[in-house]
């Protein structure tokens, strides 16, 4: 790997074999800082709780030393949850960046396109018709989310996928599903409805090493595709004609990007329920902080990870009552966005 | 009016187009009349048109008078008023933010109303709809003003994209707090899940009258800024070149949207989708003139609300499905078919 600095554009060319990727210095710096924050937060999150472990003891335990009790608490109880927060946050954010790039709309998150509603519908149906076991809820949510994506896809396909039509049809389907969900919640008993609502908000309470591992294994090939797709997506920003002239195939790229986005959201939802706002906010926050001209998948991922990890720590430890992480992601994500808008206005003024 | 908008009306359209527009208007008005008639006739006790007409003239029995005058007229008026407000608020929001995804909810109105209602239920123990109306209205106003202040702080007028983001962001914060509060309070959760569905049930004139002035002012303001919205649709610079006072138009639109959506939400709860869908349908059917979109949205949105309410009364009779749940199932298929068939114009 060689680095070639070009100070005029503040970019470095990262060479890895035949691939040469130009990276902006600011992006690299921002990503490094965020990764460092994730590491610190991760170590703290592994140490806090009713059984408190000091940060140095956490690190020692992770490296294989440390006491047996520490290892049980940290590696077996808390590590899956912390890893879930980091990886699922990244998956959701990449999915959001893909959706927003394809539709060229900063509001086109999987939530708005109805996938979260569909997952919740599937979960509610499984809860009422099958059982409240964790597995049946997960399978229900997965089927619901993917089925919703397929329905939206089939309804919007007319010799290609056009961003605007996709969004409108997504909204229509999402509205129907949301109505159905509200109706279901009105029909079932209060206690069941509250349980379903907590899950429907998105929570990391039920994460196990097994469910997380399975989801990540499913997501891995799609993450790889997303990485390869990155440069072609950037060409789409120039407009279809220019992109086609420079050798890209806009409709194919868009189609693949949407499939990948759906798969990543489905994987995350299967573990933690429909966690809102990470996929909407993370790409925008990343672009704002790193000042990139386009939505960067890599930067979105690290920002998604840090947002979900921090939110889960707040949800678990800082609130008067422990609440589903989704409650916090919605609030924190929203607050970040408010702050960004205010900062941006200040900067321009 | 010219002082506010400062924009000349576009030249008169050819007579052929005009007759088509008159025909379109007649169809919409006819649909509205049919929807009102159905709303007065259909329910747990179906009444024939003759009986309804006799009752309206004061010649009905005690029972039909109670059903039509006491129950169905307030309900129908609530649907008309809330529908018109939501439709116009949606049309204004979409034109204003230049975002086809925008509905009044995107400016945080629903989230603010919901938080205020949740606070009233959880902290003050309020359950009565006539008390919650004022809370919802206050919540909607506070959020919209906050959204506007965030979106317009700094140099220059409020940028539509910034406003949209501010609305989404602040709305998310508020709905997060609402969810957190209700998830730890079963009583509040129970109240909120029925309020959230959106319903015309039990909205008597004691609830309708207080919100009526807000909606009337909002509608008047909307019709006033209509011509200016056409100029604004071409971009701020073009609008300014045409002599429009962009900043004043924006303030007028924000005030109008808040009054309309806030009052409608206070009256019937958060009925999503009506404000989003109706302006699209009008735009794709009758063209992109904002004056047409605003006026016809005011007439077409109540049709959707009333027909949905009628359907909700019969679909699982004797029980009822709240109107907010039916609107999506009635409206979404129409939206999807139109989005597939028409060359759906972005804005």
Automatic annotation (TrEMBL), chain A:
It is found in: Cell membrane. It comes from the Bacteria. InterPro entries: ABC_BtuC-like, ABC_transptr_permease_BtuC. It is a multi-pass membrane protein. Its main location: membrane. One of its GO terms (biological process) is siderophore-iron import into cell. It holds the Pfam family FecCD. GO terms for molecular function: transmembrane transporter activity. The keyword Membrane applies. The chain crosses the membrane at residues 28-54, 79-100, 112-130, 137-157, 163-186, 207-229, 256-282, 321-343. GO terms for cellular component: plasma membrane. Keywords: Cell membrane, Membrane, Transmembrane, Transmembrane helix, Transport. Signal peptide: none annotated. Belongs to the binding-protein-dependent transport system permease family. FecCD subfamily. This is Iron chelate uptake ABC transporter family permease subunit.
């Amino acid at each position: 790997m060689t680095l070639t600095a070009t100070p005029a554009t503040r970019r470095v060319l990262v060479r890895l074999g035949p691939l040469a990727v130009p990276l902006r210095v600011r992006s690299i710096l921002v990503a490094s800082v965020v990764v460092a924050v994730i590491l610190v937060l991760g170590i703290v999150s592994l140490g806090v709780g009713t059984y408190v472990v000091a940060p140095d003891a956490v690190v020692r335990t992770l490296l294989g030393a440390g006491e047996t009790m520490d290892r049980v608490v940290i590696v077996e109880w808390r590590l899956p949850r912390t890893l879930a927060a980091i990886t699922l946050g990244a998956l959701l954010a990449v999915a959001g960046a893909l959706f927003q790039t394809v539709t060229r709309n900063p509001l086109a998150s999987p939530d708005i396109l109805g996938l979260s509603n569909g997952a919740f519908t599937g979960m509610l149906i499984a809860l009422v018709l099958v059982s409240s076991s964790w597995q049946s809820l997960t399978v229900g949510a997965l089927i619901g989310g993917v089925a919703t994506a397929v329905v939206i896809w089939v309804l919007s396909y007319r010799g290609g996928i056009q961003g605007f039509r996709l969004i409108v049809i997504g909204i229509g389907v999402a509205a129907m599903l949301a109505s159905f969900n509200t109706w279901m919640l009105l029909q079932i008993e209060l206690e069941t409805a509250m349980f379903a609502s907590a899950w429907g908000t998105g929570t990391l309470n039920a994460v196990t090493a097994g469910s997380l591992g399975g989801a990540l294994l499913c997501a891995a090939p799609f993450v790889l595709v997303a990485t390869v797709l990155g440069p072609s997506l950037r060409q789409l920003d120039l407009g279809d004609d220019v992109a086609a002239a420079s050798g890209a195939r806009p409709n194919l790229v868009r189609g693949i990007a949407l499939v990948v986005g759906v798969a990543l959201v489905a994987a995350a939802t299967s573990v933690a329920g429909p966690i809102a706002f990470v996929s909407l906010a993370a790409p925008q926050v990343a672009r704002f902080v790193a000042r990139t001209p386009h939505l960067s998948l890599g930067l979105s991922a690290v920002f998604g990870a840090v947002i979900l990890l921090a939110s889960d720590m707040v949800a678990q430890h800082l609130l008067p009552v422990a609440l589903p992480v989704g409650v916090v992601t919605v609030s924190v994500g929203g607050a970040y966005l408010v702050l960004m808008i205010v900062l941006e206005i200040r900067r321009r003024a | 009016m010219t002082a506010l908008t400062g924009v000349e009306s576009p030249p008169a359209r050819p007579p052929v187009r005009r007759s088509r527009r008159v025909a379109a208007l007649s169809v919409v008005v006819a649909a509205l009349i049919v929807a009102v008639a159905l709303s007065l006739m259909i329910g747990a006790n179906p009444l024939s048109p003759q009986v309804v007409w006799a009752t309206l003239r004061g010649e009905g029995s005690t029972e039909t008078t109670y059903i039509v005058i006491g129950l169905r007229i307030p309900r129908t008026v609530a649907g008309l008023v809330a529908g018109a407000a939501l439709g116009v608020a949606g049309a204004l929001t979409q034109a204003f933010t230049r975002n086809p995804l925008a509905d009044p909810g995107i400016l945080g109105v629903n989230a603010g109303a919901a938080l205020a209602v949740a606070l009233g239920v959880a902290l003050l123990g309020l359950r009565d709809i006539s008390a919650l109306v004022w809370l919802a209205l206050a919540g909607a106003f506070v959020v919209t003003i906050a959204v506007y202040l965030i979106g317009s702080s700094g140099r220059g007028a409020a940028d539509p994209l910034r406003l949209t983001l501010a609305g989404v962001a602040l709305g998310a914060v508020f709905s997060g707090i609402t969810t957190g509060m209700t998830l730890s309070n079963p009583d509040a959760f129970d109240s909120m899940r029925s309020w959230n569905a959106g319903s015309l049930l039990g909205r008597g004139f004691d609830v309708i009258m207080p919100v009526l002035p807000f909606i009337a002012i909002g509608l008047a303001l909307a019709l006033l800024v209509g011509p200016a919205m056409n100029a604004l649709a071409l971009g701020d610079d073009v609008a300014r070149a045409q002599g429009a006072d962009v900043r004043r138009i924006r303030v007028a639109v924000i005030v109008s949207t808040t009054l309309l959506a806030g009052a409608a939400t206070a009256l019937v709860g958060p009925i999503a989708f009506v404000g989003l869908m109706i302006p699209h349908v009008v735009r794709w059917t009758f063209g992109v003139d904002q004056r047409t979109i605003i006026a016809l949205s005011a007439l077409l949105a109540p049709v959707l609300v009333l027909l949905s309410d009628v359907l909700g009364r019969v679909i699982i009779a004797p029980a009822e499905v709240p109107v907010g749940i039916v609107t999506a199932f009635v409206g979404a298929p129409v939206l999807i078919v139109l989005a597939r068939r028409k060359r759906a114009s972005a804005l």
